[in-house]
Design a protein that fits this description.
By secondary structure, this protein is an alpha/beta fold. The chain contains 16 helices and six strands. Helix 3 packs parallel to helix 9, helix 4 runs antiparallel to helix 9 and helix 5 runs parallel beside helix 9. The chain is elongated, with a radius of gyration of 36 Å.
């Protein structure tokens, strides 16, 4: 009775729809009748059949071009984030492979969409947690809540931009649509399907030939619609897989351990441990005894920050804030001279380093300690693939003492050496690069003669400036991983808050009758 009442209520709308649709439907029927009566039906059927055959190669071409255009249109989206390290980029390669292999989703069937999303999440989870039995579950509640917060914020921004009238759309509207679908959706679909089957059966009885032609035409039209919608579906499918993969990488890589506010607080705590003003990037100086680390610190600071002399002067870890005019402010950690093994204090400083500046003397023939400690640091980095390793630069000091020792008339062009001194400097750079397995571009020859002006410090500052962005990414990654485990103080605070909440509930609970 309710449905009959609803029909009586909406009969003007039903008549309006019929008034619009019936003229076009009658034109289709009358056209088919005219073709049959004028003996042109077979010509039309032959032409439709030939065009139908052409749809196969054309649809293949359209699909191939649509896939290529989807990749091109989403080129920026398909690029890995700049602050991702190797492990995250490898996971992103898996996501791209899934996006390339995923067929465009149907606009009506959500099952393939959910299956592809699940496959993408599981592939990323297995990449970061290969040994876990339930890799997909390797995240904490705060992490998934932070992910939901970010996704909700992004969806809100896109909705305000892309959906017309979204501010006027209320939850009550969606509830009404859902109720109408529950109430009339099944009946409408059944009625439409039954009427379609009945019409096709009646048409086949009245005129089998024409019915066969219309069936073929309908199949071709359906195929054309599918092909024409392929471009939109290919774009939407690839975008969906990429966005799901990106969110999964953020979740399983540990990048959601801290929110932006928590990350700023962690940076403040990390830098507050250092006496003096806060520095944005932490550079650790490592090198053999008397390699020139203290002299380099003084030269970079343009003032005396550390004792300089012919004997080893740095007996402990010393940290300085360098704010040279015209140069980026950095925090420099001057380490004691290297021994034959990786000392715990050196490793602890490397773990907190955003950039490592290795200092080596050009006139020191023994490179064994440098290579041994460098290999130990590389092994440490390989054993911690989730950590972004700090970049390594090398300052090659004492180049003014290379042969011929009496010659010193800077500047020198070691790229195209024209003098014996320049060739000696070039040979020293290449020898150190081979021995320590470093790139030539990461080595800067410098000199700090006691009675002369420092040489090539501008080039060293320029090389440091090029690595500052990478060093900042290392710093962010280091702070995130520094919050991987819960501290006892944090646990005690949480237990105290929970206890107060429970006690408050017990005290304020009304007495039972």
């Amino acid at each position: 009775m309710k449905r009959i009442g609803a029909f009586r209520h909406y009969w003007p709308e039903a008549l309006l729809i019929l008034a619009i649709v019936l003229p076009w439907l009658s034109l289709l029927v009358l056209g088919m009748v005219w073709l049959w009566q004028s003996d042109h039906f077979w010509r039309w059927a032959l032409g439709a059949f030939i065009l139908g055959l052409l749809t196969w190669p054309l649809s293949w071409f359209v699909r191939r071009r649509a896939n290529a255009e989807a990749r091109l249109a989403l080129g920026e989206v398909a690029q890995p984030l700049a602050d991702w390290h190797v492990r995250e980029r490898d996971a992103w390669s898996d996501v791209l492979a899934i996006a390339d292999a995923t067929a465009p989703f149907s606009l009506l069937d959500v099952a393939p969409l959910l299956a592809s999303a699940q496959a993408t999440v599981e592939a990323v989870a297995r990449h970061f947690h290969p040994q876990a039995q339930d890799a997909w579950a390797q995240f904490s509640l705060p992490e998934v809540l932070l992910l939901a917060e970010r996704v909700s914020r992004d969806v809100r921004r896109e909705a305000l931009t892309q959906i017309p009238g979204v501010r006027a759309l209320r939850l009550s509207h969606l509830i009404w649509i859902h109720r109408q679908h529950e109430r009339y959706g099944a009946l409408a679909w059944t009625g439409w399907h039954a009427s379609s089957v009945l019409w096709r059966a009646v048409r086949a009885v009245l005129n089998p030939v024409r019915a066969a032609g219309q069936e073929a035409s309908g199949a071709l039209v359906d195929k054309a619609v599918t092909v024409l919608s392929y471009r939109v579906r290919a774009f939407a499918t690839r975008l969906l897989v990429l966005e799901i993969g990106r969110a999964a990488i953020e979740l399983y890589s540990g990048r959601l351990k801290l929110s932006d506010a928590e990350l700023r607080a962690a940076r403040a705590r990390d830098l507050a441990a250092v006496e003096g003003p806060i520095a944005p990037v932490r550079i650790v100086l490592i090198g053999q005894v008397s390699a020139g680390k203290s002299s380099l610190v003084n030269a970079l600071a343009q003032e005396s920050r550390s004792a300089v002399g012919p004997v080893p002067t740095t007996a402990r870890v010393a940290e300085y804030l360098l704010e040279a005019e015209g140069q980026p402010a950095v925090s420099v950690v001057d380490m004691p001279g290297l021994c034959d093994r990786l000392e715990p204090d050196v490793l602890s400083q490397v773990e907190r380093a955003d950039l490592i500046l290795w200092v080596a003397s050009a006139v020191q023939p023994a490179r064994g300690p440098d290579r041994k400690i460098l290999d130990a640091l590389r092994a440490w980095a390989a054993a911690h693939p989730a950590r972004r390793p700090p970049p390594i630069l090398l300052a090659l000091t004492h180049v003014d003492e290379l042969r011929p020792a009496a010659e010193w008339a800077p500047p020198y062009d070691i790229a195209v050496p024209a003098t014996s001194k320049a060739r000696a400097m070039r040979d020293a750079v290449e020898a150190v690069a081979r021995t320590l397995d470093l790139s030539i571009d990461s080595i800067v020859p410098i000199a700090m003669p006691p009675d002369g002006k420092p040489y090539n410090l501008d080039a060293l500052w320029a090389r440091l400036a090029l690595e500052l962005e990478e060093a900042k990414l290392v710093q962010l990654d280091r702070l995130r991983h520094g919050q991987q485990t819960m501290s006892l103080r944090e646990l005690a605070s949480q237990l105290g808050q929970a206890g107060r909440f429970i006690l408050k509930g017990v005290v304020t609970r009304p007495p039972t009758a």
